[in-house]
Write a structure and sequence with these properties.
Residues 35-271 form the AB hydrolase-1 domain. The protein has helices spanning 3-7, 52-56, 81-95, 107-118, 138-153, 157-165, 176-186, 189-193, 195-198, 204-210, 214-218, 237-246, 262-265, 267-283; strands at 12-19, 22-29, 34-38, 60-64, 100-105, 123-129, 224-229, 251-255. The protein is α/β, with parallel strands linked by helices and 297 residues long. It has a domain at 12-136 and 213-283: Alpha/Beta hydrolase fold, catalytic domain (Rossmann fold, 3-Layer(aba) Sandwich). It has an eight-stranded mixed β-sheet, with helices on both faces. The relative contact order is 0.17.
Length: 297
């Protein structure tokens, strides 16, 4: 099984969208209510290739490379959470999304949660997949910073392989194809030049001014699904339970033998769970498309 065989059932487009002046790589497929998939730190849209075919049967799917990530543009400033949110909403405006369901893994969950809090009219529902941003653990932050910088600043593909395997409970899920995709991205000159902008949230002072505190989480009013791997290397289960307790009415699902990419590692379990949650969220009320919104933010 490869990325392309996983995507082969889809009629899809892969293009670049001008999102507030930032060329943004976007994979789009399906029709219906918009669902936007957001990856984690130093990640890219291929994190969701095991999910798009199932979701595109019922939804208009958008998997994007976030600001400064993948093959999206890399403006030269630190990527703090408000910058990511601004970029996300600029993408919404550029492609005509008024309101979307957000699926956010790791950093993507942090960004999705902040968008849901600050712009509730733009977020229909929220999925937090091993979401970051609620704690500041120096050991975890150093592990992310060091492993990423080593893989980016060295040509040794084994360091990229090690960085990707760090995410998975079973190293086999870090397929060689994914390793090669990530290695190529890591060694794009613009990615190398901007890696410290991308890693700024691993600095304690920067993280503290961006962190999601219990009061922030309590402001999330959208239907919320929290999915967590019991072998998540970047956060223990109490982080997930604290999110669940802070977000009224949220649903918490713990995956056994799972690391930091539940949507990828256990796609056969995650996909129907997500689709059931989306169906319930839609039944609760959704208004998603509009025509003619002015782009540029």
């Amino acid at each position: 099984m490869t990325i392309w065989t996983e995507l082969s059932p889809l009629s899809l487009s892969l293009s670049y969208v001008d999102a507030g002046g930032v060329p943004t790589r976007s994979l789009r497929a399906g029709s219906g209510e918009p669902v936007v998939f957001l990856h984690g730190t130093s990640g890219h849209l291929e994190a969701f290739t095991r999910n798009l075919a199932a979701h595109a049967e019922q939804y208009e799917c958008h998997a994007i490379d976030m600001l400064g990530h993948g093959y999206t543009g890399k403006p030269d400033y630190p990527y703090e959470i408000p910058r990511y949110v601004d970029h996300l909403l600029a993408y919404f405006d550029a492609v005509g999304i008024e309101r979307a369901h957000i699926v956010g893994e790791s950093l993507g969950g942090w960004v999705g949660a902040r968008a849901a809090i600050d712009h509730p009219d733009r977020v229909a529902s929220l999925q937090l997949l091993c979401a970051g941003g609620t704690v500041a653990n120096p050991q975890v932050m150093e592990r992310i910073r060091t492993s990423t910088r080593e893989a980016v600043l060295s040509d040794d593909v084994e360091l990229t392989r090690k960085r990707l395997r760090l995410l998975m409970a079973d190293p086999a899920d870090a397929t060689e194809e994914l390793v090669q995709v990530r290695h190529a991205i890591y060694h794009e000159p613009a990615f190398v030049a901007g890696v410290d902008n991308l890693l700024c949230l691993q600095d304690m002072e920067t993280r503290q001014r961006n962190i999601l505190r219990p009061g922030d989480l309590a402001a999330i009013s959208q239907p919320t699904l929290i999915v967590w791997g019991r072998k998540n290397p970047f956060g223990d289960v109490p982080e997930a339970t604290a999110m669940h307790e802070a977000i009224a009415g949220s649903q918490l699902e713990l995956f056994e033998e799972c690391g930091h990419w539940p949507q990828h590692e256990q796609a056969a379990r995650y996909n129907p769970l997500s689709l059931s949650f989306l169906a319930k969220s839609s039944a609760a009320g959704f208004s998603g498309r509009f025509i003619g919104r002015v782009s540029g933010r």
